[in-house]
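Hi R.,

Here's the chain you asked about this morning:
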Amino acid sequence: MNSLLVSKTGRKKRKDSFEAQHDMKMVKKILQELYVDKQLSTTKIPIVLLEKYNIKISDLKCFYILQDMGILRDKSESVSIARSAFDYKQSLLTRNLIDIIDGLVIGDASIGLSNNNKTARLSISGKYKEFIVYCRGLVESFKPSEVKYYNGEKGEGTWSFYTKFHPDLGKMYFRWYNNGIKDVPPDINLSPITILLWYLGDGSISAINGDHSRSLKFSTNSFSREAIENILVKKMLELGIEASRVDKSNQLFIKTSSIVSLINYIGKNPPVKCYSYKFDIEEWRLKKSMKNASRELDVKYNRLANWVKSGSVRHSRSPGGKKVLFSNEEFNELKDRLNKGELSRDKGKRAAIKPIAINAPFSNHEFTRKSDEPEGEFFDRIADICHKRGFPYKIYNQEKKEKLWTRLRNSQYIIPEGEIIKWRTNELSLADSFHPYLFDMNCKNKISPLSLFNNKDELINCLQQYLKIGGILTWAGVSHAVCRSYQSKRVNNFSPAFAKDIYNYYCDDGYKVLDFCAGFSGRLLGASATRYKDIQYIGIDPNIDTFNGLIETKKFLHKIRPDFKCNIIDECAEDCLIDYRSELFDFIFTSPPYFDKEVYSRFNNQSSIRYPIYSAWLKCFLKTVLKEAYRVLKKGRKCVINIGKADRHDIPNDLIEIAEEIGFKNIEQKYIEFGNYRFVNGSNTRLEPMIIMEKL
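And the predicted structure, written out as tokens:
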């Protein structure tokens, strides 16, 4: 009797029971969020609980708790769990699960067919328990056995598990074992999770050439030559990863210069510590040498050496400083400067520098130039004043924020018919105030506004340019100058007023809205200020700083409008959209990254870093999220996406092609007319596409 506790209802329960060991109030709150808000199944919830909250719970226990809470969607999902049996009529396979199984099977896992030739089970073994436990969690849907240890013949044991038999795994068997022989299926998708699992299980990295370089290879010895060359090598090249098959060993080798791209693609942080050594790569070894850079750029070696010596070009050095090296970013910057004429391949030629004429009005006492003050001293004084004040962030107290939001809520504007929609910047500063770090982000080939502001020489040059084109030197003028100069440019934010106009035009009462690239609170604020009732906003963004800013916005909105519901998810959209049930959302409105045009972070959860080659970005990011967006959108509802071109890449047209392929109908384009940013664009306005499509 000592091992039993008495519950409030009088029922006896063990001290080691789930209820006795956990805070059930917290557990039920988490279950409510996962089952109701995220719409996860009772087979998926235990995986999330274990990974994110370190709570171990069985499918059956999860079902009973949800049943007691009275929030089960239906019993068909859970009856089979309660009986510890599968519902063979319902497939468990998703795109993500197929990629996971492919990643395991291309490595050390195997699929065994049952006697009825219809069902099969997956099994895997390895020397590290941590890795096998990790793999078991990925295929939890197939009810795997517990991980067990088996002694080997030579004293080296292995850890392993196997799943239950299922028709889905029977289908996977016939993909991988044609005529009973294991070989790579032509339709394999080399997604990040597939290559990650393959690399963990069957990849290796080693030093070559006296430890001056690195070699990365995959053990593909058992596969046919045709499958390696015609499937794996080609698919790697499509991702921008140079690979080749070596005749002698029949292994797949990754070119040294592509190792960084591969690691960026699968993620720099290993999911298990036991294989962390496979990610321990000194990046300096993988950079271009000065000799290779001069050859690829068709620049004489001595000329490039002089630029390095004089500090004219950015470069890196090996530990100890002996070798001059160029990272991909530094090499591309050097290449762009050559193309623009800032540097010349010809000896004695330099890029032309136009003289700066100062002749502009002044206002504000602090920024007024004294009659006897030399020009150099004037700008030096202004720069000191700016640095003393600090960067011109928009900082508002609660009262000011509420006033701006109320003004946003009360603003009246109706989107006109036709192709052109004028951009409204109303209350953009309110959105910016929740994300001050965005001024430390930069656009491609430009420095961030904060970096420019902190560099005194750059700031002085910027203010001189600003005065030259007729700007008025005030504190607001300084803000405009550093954010819209020729040297720097702030990353774009979506206007809350414009977002509100779009919601008012396309939405209705009770709509559930998805924004899978939530950004800097513009569309979130717009949704909160729309005229419709009970609109629910779900925003997804992988950047931790952006996520924190969105959470602060959510807290502010909860105080001013408690009835407005919103949920912010800190994940990559291409990874987490798969967790939402089909036909859940009434409207999708977002503005994805313009490939690599803006640099939001240096982490590999940024799509252009995760997929650095444009073709791979289109396939693995844009196409993936659009397919999932189509799936989760209700029939008869619309998806609106604002996206522009990035350098030579025509992203809007590529997006339309993908959308048509997926099944979107009634695709049309409207154009957002942006205002006159004189400091950047002269007197020209700028049009940017907004693509509207429908799921029928």
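The first strand starts at residue 4 and ends at 6.

Let me know if you need anything else.
M.
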